[in-house]
Write a structure and sequence with these properties.
heterodimer; A: about 290 residues; alpha/beta; Rossmann fold; 2 domains; six-stranded mixed β-sheet; four-stranded antiparallel β-sheet; B: about 280 residues; two-stranded antiparallel sheet
């Protein structure tokens, strides 16, 4: 079996220490993300999920335990360059990760650091911008774009490096619903069409249900790990972690009090609509 | 309104000046400025002024925009010409004008007039060529051009590429920080702070509660930016390739040749005619 792309082995991370109490952010975290998988990480504020993101490519180093990327240890400084060319991160604030004053220059930043020859940088930049639907804006200035557009540029900046995996560190948290949908669509497409491994950190349930697998973090620990259906079935555990079910699931739950025939695993609006449709189609059939 | 900011004063276009190599433009602008200071009489200065005018026409930058670039130095020009006009002692004994003012007499000599006009034309030429450079070159191209021109200094361990990166980042964050200032000012105003009236000292004091959060947020941004840059394999070492390839083409060499001709012309005219300065 090939080694997983990202692997956390019993990782703990503690902030601070110089003044005041050291704050543990991640405790004994273990999980593995195989190539090509779309994994969502859920957790409320302070659950340690953002710290976990920065541990993925050695921006932070574990206080205890090991993080392996494609078998390379992030604690080994000599490997950091190779680790970061495999795993890129898209951060929360689109303004603080765009480096150049022209979009295409920004997308070129990563490949330039990788010493890619100029002609190939050109093709990579164009491809990456097309993949996120921002090619027409390649000569625009970042401050003239919307939040969703800027975040797609940030994704293109990582794509142009041809990474194997992209970690999204609450990349949709500062966006309006429309921007969130734009980014989510782009991420799903990259995962399905280009086979890019995705670790999607979020506190939006509606986004987590689209993943292949959901990890739930609470107080720096891994609480739940499984398919969206399996994770969202554990409503009490989620509540304890300060999380609610996605709205369509809550809605279906209320409906189920009146229509016990509704299935238990409804998570998305589409699931919900289909189930209701089926229910009424059945009822109609019974009445006849 | 903040969306309208454009950094620098680049005027998008595709004139011959726009298409020139940024390095050549930088070098030639510098050379032109030096030549402006070589002029000794009105003939050579006239030649240069004519060249600057031709360049302005070639750039196809609207005249209004060019005039606007003179505005910030207007005071300086007026000030220096007045001083030159009044403080130059002519060699000839017949002043053009003698104006008795109270206990003094204002004497305006031919030399004074000449020098005033001369310096004015000189300053205007300087401003014109340097703004032509920034009108026809994007800030990022200027940065790249400068980086390439200075790259030999990297051998002397001058961190040229790091400076270029700092310049790029500064250019990138100017609009972001202006936006932020705007936001903080609105927030403070809505809490009743008065930023617009009162004495200068009062207004400066009122501005402190704007500056403090601005700096705090700038530092936070810088920290996040560092993460983002490291994440994208930036190491700060000098070896990076670049999307932008600068290439010297025929027009660039032609431009350099023209400047050499002009330079020769200036030297010749300086010789043939008596110096004013």
């Amino acid at each position: 079996m090939p080694s997983p792309l990202i692997e956390f082995q019993n990782v703990s991370f503690t902030y601070g220490g110089e003044e005041g109490e050291p704050v543990p952010a991640v405790r004994e975290l273990s999980f593995a993300v195989p190539r090509g998988e779309f994994v969502a990480v859920l957790g409320h504020n302070g659950s340690g999920k953002s710290t976990a993101a920065k541990l993925c490519n050695g921006l932070l180093l574990p206080t205890e335990g090991k993080v392996l990327v494609d078998g390379l240890d992030t604690a080994d400084e000599a490997q950091l360059f190779d680790i970061r060319r495999r795993v890129g991160i898209v951060f929360q604030n689109p303004d603080n990760q765009i480096i150049a004053a022209i979009i295409e220059d920004d997308v070129a930043f990563g490949p330039e650091n990788l010493n890619v020859p100029p002609a190939e940088i050109r093709t990579r930049v164009d491809e990456a911008l097309k993949a996120v639907g921002m090619f027409e804006h390649r000569l625009a200035e970042p401050h003239k774009l919307s939040g969703g557009q800027k975040q797609r540029v940030a994704i293109a900046g990582i794509l142009a490096m041809r990474n194997d995996a992209i970690v999204f560190d609450e990349a949709t948290a500062m966006l309006d619903p429309r921007g969130r949908r734009e980014v989510m669509d782009a991420v799903l497409r990259l995962n399905r069409e280009q086979g890019i491994t995705v670790l999607f950190i979020t506190h939006f349930m509606e986004e987590a249900v689209l993943a292949d697998r959901v990890l739930v973090m609470d107080e720096g620990r891994l609480l739940l790990d499984g398919t969206p259906q399996a994770v969202f079935a554990q409503q009490n555990a989620l509540r304890a972690a300060g999380l609610e079910l996605p709205i369509p699931a809550l809605f279906a739950q209320k409906l189920r009090a009146h229509f016990p025939a509704l299935p238990e695993d409804i998570l998305t609006e589409e699931d919900c609509a289909r189930a209701i449709f089926r229910l009424f189609a059945q009822k109609g059939g019974n009445a006849q | 309104m903040i969306k309208e900011i454009t950094i620098g004063q680049y005027y998008a276009g595709s004139s011959p000046l726009h298409r020139m190599d940024a390095r050549m433009k930088l070098l030639l602008t510098l050379a032109f400025m030096v030549v402006i200071f070589l002029c000794k009489n009105f003939f050579s200065l006239g030649l240069l002024a004519a060249c600057a005018a031709v360049l302005a026409l070639l750039s196809r930058v609207p005249g209004g925009m060019l005039l606007r670039s003179f505005r910030p130095i207007l005071m300086l020009v007026v000030f220096t010409s007045v001083l030159n006009l009044l403080y130059t002692n002519g060699a000839d004994t017949h002043p053009l004008l003698e104006l008795p003012v109270w206990r003094w007499t204002l004497v305006i000599t031919r030399e004074g007039l000449f020098i005033a006009v001369f310096t004015t034309v000189r300053i205007l030429c300087l401003i014109l060529v340097s703004s032509l450079l920034t009108y026809t070159t994007t800030p990022s191209m200027l940065t790249t051009g400068l980086e390439r021109l200075l790259s030999p200094l990297a051998r002397l361990r001058v961190p040229v590429s790091v400076f270029a990166m700092m310049m790029t980042l500064a250019l990138r964050f100017v609009p972001t920080l202006i936006e932020e200032t705007d936001r903080i000012m609105s927030a403070q105003k809505s809490r009743g702070s008065n930023l617009e009236t009162g004495s200068l000292l009062k207004r400066i004091k009122a501005f402190v509660p704007v500056l403090v959060p601005l700096f705090v947020s700038a530092f936070r941004r810088a920290a996040e930016l560092a993460y983002a840059m490291e994440s994208r394999c930036y190491t700060g070492s000098g070896t990076r390739t670049s999307l932008k390839q600068l290439r010297l083409r025929l027009p660039d060499y032609l431009a350099a040749f023209c400047l050499l001709l002009v330079m020769a012309g200036v030297v010749a005219l300086n010789r043939f005619f008596t110096a004013v300065i």
